[in-house]
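Is this the right way to post structure tokens for a design question? Let me know if I should format differently. Anyway, here goes:
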């Protein structure tokens, strides 16, 4: 009876410490994830990504087709850089909660596959590539330099995405948390367990 009472008290103290004290009081300690509260953040992030993709598309169309007086190489590869950033934005729109490094890897894989797809020629595909939508989505001529430009655009977009995200707390040990500035001001009074020694009953 005494052992079970001591175990229950210890378990209760551990749960209160883990769920109530550390996440909500210690600076930087992570809180439990609430999916309902995370949904508005994801919707807001998707909206921002959608607007960013529209801006990137408008910039790419402007660079490629408006008479800005830019050199031909700048027009070509600036458009490719913006295209890579657009792919990153679309991938992030589909998976808004994923880490930027994973989004960048998926976006680069998609960009490389699209570039390799330019080696496939059929009458229907070639006719589509002559249209504005075909030029923007698929392009016409395969180029390794385009892949490099895509990677630059994806990298810049991932860096911007990582820099604009709200900071997320990483899981810390109790020792690290207690070593944080201001930890001395934390009010922590664990419940004392009233453990009594009883003689064993072997009857």
């Amino acid at each position: 009876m005494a052992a079970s009472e001591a175990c229950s008290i210890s378990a209760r103290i551990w749960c209160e410490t883990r769920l109530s004290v550390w996440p909500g009081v210690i600076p930087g300690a992570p809180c439990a994830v609430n999916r309902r509260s995370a949904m508005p953040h994801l919707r807001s992030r998707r909206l921002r990504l959608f607007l960013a993709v529209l801006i990137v598309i408008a910039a790419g169309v402007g660079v490629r087709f408006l008479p800005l007086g830019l050199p031909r190489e700048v027009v070509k590869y600036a458009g490719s850089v913006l295209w890579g950033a657009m792919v990153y934005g679309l991938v992030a729109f589909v998976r808004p909660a994923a880490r930027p490094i994973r989004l960048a890897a998926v976006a680069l894989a998609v960009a490389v596959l699209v570039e390799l797809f330019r080696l496939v020629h059929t009458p229907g595909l070639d006719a589509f590539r002559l249209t504005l939508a075909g030029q923007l989505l698929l392009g016409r001529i395969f180029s390794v330099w385009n892949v490099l430009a895509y990677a630059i655009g994806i990298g810049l977009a991932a860096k911007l995405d990582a820099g604009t995200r709200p900071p997320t707390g990483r899981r810390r040990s109790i020792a690290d948390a207690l070593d944080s500035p201001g930890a001395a001001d934390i009010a922590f009074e664990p419940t004392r367990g009233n453990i009594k020694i009883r003689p064993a009953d072997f009857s």
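Format looks fine. Someone answered above. Worth noting: The two ends are 15 Å apart (CA to CA). The chain has a mean pLDDT of 75.
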